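thread: overnight batch results

M.L. [08:02]
morning all. the overnight job finished for the chain we discussed friday. pasting input first so we're all looking at the same thing
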Amino acid sequence: MSGLPEDLKYAMTHEWARLEDDNVVRVGITDFAQEQLGDLVYIEMPELGRKVKAGEQCAVVESVKTASDLFSPVTGEIVAVNVALADEPEEVNSSPYQAWLFCVKADNPPELDLLMDADAYRLMIEQ
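M.L. [08:03]
and the structure it wrote out:
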């Protein structure tokens, strides 16, 4: 799969993460994930202010085929959700690396180092 942004980190559960200012981590799902799911029809976002641990289930995406849990890549607090996706979940299908889902204020940003870089993620999904 080409076109994986090199500036992102990737979870084995197919979320992408980008560290931004103030230790805020923006999270979405990968192009591979949205292809596997098919057309998204609903996204259940995490609640603002919710405390999450790295690897904890915190959101759900539903497609015409199935529903899939989403997991936080880092420990912290949910500080933003992309409310625009409530009315247009298909944006994730058309622009998976622009259509972020939620942001976590990371308690421990070095947890991102436990995620994969683009090369490692590419190898995983090609197997």
